Amino acid sequence: MLRRPEVRAHDLLAAFAVPRHFADATFESYRPDPAHPSQRAARERLAALAGAIAAPAPRGLARLVRRAPEPAAVYLDGGFGVGKTHLLAALAREVGEHVVYGTFVEYTHLVGALGFAATVRALSAHRLVCIDEFELDDPGDTVLMARLLRELADHGVALAATSNTLPESLGEGRFAAEDFMREIQSLAERFDVVRIDGPDYRHRAAVGPAAGLPDDEVRARAVGEGVTCDDFSDLVAHLRTVHPSRYGALLDGVRRVGLTGVAPLTDQADALRLVVLVDRLYDRDVPVLLGGSGTEGLFGPAMLRGGYRKKYYRALSRLSALTP
């Protein structure tokens, strides 16, 4: 995995598609909890939106007479495990062509790789832009994304986003919509907030630390075609040399990842780069064998209390899901 892939702009954009983990997500396969009617209502709302976006645009005289409607914009607000990403993926699948799908971080990295104007040109050619896990923990990135969304809406692109709410906020009824609407300011009135209530369908308890495997066992199991095995410190150092927009390309052809000597991270920049890599591993359903200390103390107490704690909790949850 310690390579430096060269990725053309066209290939970067081609990667903005529903990830493998949700490739089969449809509105029919979403199972709303009868105890929480907002789940069924959300499914119906997005199914109707998909039909409206996919409907052919008026042509000829009808196009001149009919005033173009303001592009749709919807924000799915809810906690972990209520199916927000499933519904977003189903929306993208139902609309079909001319759809881009990515996480908040992937879009900010795309702007970093292509530049703002080029990103707007590339994305404005699509009918729908889906942003999973909209993040509000970095003021600079939030302003950048608000500006990007405004430009895309002005170009007639429909928008759909999901929230990213901390587990400890769920019992207090604190969700992300209020913060989201405040941060996007001039765009707020265009967004329709769709609230989705309910418990985590996986009934997942709070993410706890997991000890790593013996490094010799990781080396023994991380063999074969499409399997990589690297020292954790070497991987962390290597990620500093690769733009995060290319982390997905690092995993091309990779079926399993082994990491030996896993140890707690002390540098926040290194920790955030690892979060991005974990997201790409999760998108591709790539199993991970962790040696060393595993996830025990991987992100220290200060990190888990800080402004980026949502990212770290998500990474721990996903690493847990990817560990065989």
From TrEMBL:
The keyword Oxidoreductase does not apply. Pfam families: AFG1_ATPase. Keywords: ATP-binding, Cell cycle, Cell division, Nucleotide-binding. It comes from the Bacteria. InterPro entries: ATPase_AFG1-like, P-loop_NTPase. GO terms for biological process: cell division. This is Cell division protein ZapE. It comes from Actinotalea lenta. The lineage of its organism: Bacteria, Bacillati, Actinomycetota, Actinomycetes, Micrococcales. The gene is zapE.
